[in-house]
Design a protein that fits this description.
single chain, alpha+beta, Glutamine Phosphoribosylpyrophosphate, subunit 1, domain 1, Rossmann fold, six-stranded antiparallel beta sheet, globular
Length: 583
Amino acid sequence: MCGIIGVAGNIPEEKLFTSARDVLAHRGPDGSGTYHALEEGIALGHRRLSIIDLSDAGKQPMHSHDGRYVITFNGEIYNYLELKEELAKRYPFKTKTDTEVLLAAYATWGKKCLKHLNGMYAFAIWDRKERVLFCARDHLGIKPFFYHLAENGTFYFASEIKGLRALGVKYVHNAGIVYDYLYHGFYDHSEETFFKGINSLRAGQFLEWRDGKISIQKYWDLADIVPSEEVLSDEQVRSRFEELLTDAVRLQFRSDVPVGISLSSGLDSNGLLYFTEKKTPRAPHMVSMCMQSERYDECRLTDTYLDSNQRKRWHPKYLSPEEIFGRIVEMTKVEDQPFGGVSTTGLLFLYEHAREAGLTVLLDGDGLDEILAGYKYYSYDIANGAERKPLSGTLSHDGTTFLDQAILSPAFVEAHSERKLGFEIPFASALQNAQYRDIKHTRLSRDLRFKDHASMHSGRELRVPFLDYRLVEFCFFLPAKYKIRGNAQKVLARDVLGGYVPAVVCARPKTAFPAVQVEWFRQGHYRNEIFSILESTSFMNRGFYDHKKLMAKVDAFYRGEGDNSFFIWQCVNLELWFRTSID
């Protein structure tokens, strides 16, 4: 896991480039490297977080054995040992790194190497002979890749947008994405970012830059996969799920540094913990984020079912609302773009706590809700007999509507009235189309960005076994009965993992992570700070809201009407983003 950065075309002088590379030093505190070739028109930079082969042999940018290719790589190729065995007959390996395996795979198979990879990755490979830059992002978009193509054809890329600014790319707000965010509640849903001219390479895509022009193609998409026609019994389905998860966990525990687990009180992360303890000889340490809340303090429940040996390996971090709110501006800078809610800032504390506990790598339970329909609103598509088009597009975790377009400025809405937001509906099943939307465009992509940036801010690597693309493909195409049955969701996971986790965990309904925000707002936390922002001149001059209607709705919320605090967070977070990034 690392930070990557680069320029192809009219490259900056080396001192400036090195300075921009080191803006990403938090992503790679263990080392750095640069390939700066003015005559080739290429500059590649790397900040290293040492995970596999801790020696200097793993330094990047790395050259192929013949010197033709140069790579800068962020992430992990989990199946690198298997690939290395296959490639060893054709490539003279010199290191024990997965980076060299990736380089060898590209040197051997070209762009088709992506069909062989199992991992999380964002990388760029320079072909010195053909003067082509090849860039790719993993199947699910776990690792980030941001880029900008200048008018003169110069191509800039980096793991974080702040790296592009350090290279001289200007920050200008993208009014269209601001509209999508405020009107639809969507962000991280397309290649566009909140910054005009700065894009994100999407999951399952690769990009090639040649002579000042870029071409982008997808190499993996659930909509392009032909599902198996094999009919499996219930027992075979459960067995296959268990086999795939076992192998994902096996691969993702490959590391030369300690691996732990990010633990909540839910099924997903507990499933990883208990499954790992039963399926492997490992006894991983755990870190947890504990909110100061009667209803949402997950550590209180966790403490009741961990045994004495597990408690010795458990590192809970207790957080007050004041502590979290005190770092919202910092989190805004860490994320570079608006993010998910007050409680999301707690991730900063969590990963710092993991660093203090000596855990460089953490397994995380993200993705299970998307691949097995774990959010409550998915049940609306089943209960209401939706066909093809999902009903759940504007619903929150608990099935309630969280948007109110009436509080937006009519002029702002009118200015973007021609901007249409429609996601593909490639499947006959409304449930699958809802899952597809959340995996490809909405929920998963933004959650992965939040956690990547927050974890890498402390130099921690986050791995997500439920997003092994083989497991994703298998679960996604299963009949709905393995996902939703009556009031139960993630049915297959509950059936399989229920044999490993305590019964109280398996039976517990899903708790919305951001829900504590409503409680804290209602209790009066941050009220003065919130009103100070909403009544500020800069906020009112943005032109996004009908300020009178907005404040009437805010007052109604504080009187106890409704449970929607998202619109308040939108106002506060977007304003802080403008102040820290644009103004």
